[in-house]
């Protein structure tokens, strides 16, 4: 991450949203019902809703460590720890795509976030890489084209079934395509900001893969209205990472650093809204 470039990237969100307003004005005002249905949580009186997505579950164990530990158990334990940490701040409402060892289809996870109008979606996973010496966390955002072969491989592993590409229910045809394009652009910028905030929060404290901020076509990140990232918390194929992911103290530290990143993300979002 280029720290010096961060203000410029943050500024792109304001340009994207300003472009959205101009485009809607040209094409005709969007119906009030549509705007009410899809607006994000901007009022200071409403706490943002964070949707946590513990990967896998039920009949889908996810990655399996050499000693038989299932990814699905680590992702659920980590998400429950993170929910407590987020709620402890008093700043957020927190929902989860699953709270037990059950299978939830990828499209259902996306649909839950859409139905609850989540302000942020974070999917938690553990890597299973071909080289046991590779270790560390990595942060993924959505892209049709993967940033590299490793990102493409991770996305292929996680996309056990396909999810929706998103929809703009209630918008008239002449407006829907413009709104979808602009909303997707703004969402991608916010998602990248979240990934970079995670990177900055982890640096020097949580092990990360080289070039940990990557992109690929993940099914659970395809909703065009919700900023989203997928966090690979570590590699189950690496003994050091596995011990760290199973250690309650280390999981708590991870939850604290994720919470700090989310705080930073929403602090910057609030500053952007105040700036107009």
Class per helix and strand makeup: alpha/beta
Number of strands: 6
Q: How many angstroms separate the termini?
A: 26 Å
Task: Give the low-confidence spans.
Answer: 1-39, 161-182
What is the assigned CATH homologous superfamily?
Answer: Zn-dependent exopeptidases
Walk me through what this model shows.
- The structure is a single chain.
- With 276 residues, the chain is α/β, with parallel strands linked by helices.
- It has a single domain, classed as Zn-dependent exopeptidases (Aminopeptidase, 3-Layer(aba) Sandwich), CATH 3.40.630.
- 48% of the residues lie in helices and 15% in strands.
- The chain has a six-stranded mixed sheet with strand order 2-1-3-6-4-5, sandwiched between helices.
- Helix 3 crosses helix 8 and helix 6 packs across helix 8.
- The protein is globular and about 50 Å long.
- The two termini are 26 Å apart.
- The N terminus is likely disordered.
Chain-wise SSE layout:
Elements: H1 6-27, H2 32-38, E1 49-54, H3 71-88, E2 93-96, H4 106-115, E3 120-127, E4 137-142, H5 149-158, H6 173-202, E5 208-216, E6 228-235, H7 239-246, H8 248-274
Parallel strand pairs: 1-2, 1-3, 3-6, 4-5
Antiparallel strand pairs: 4-6
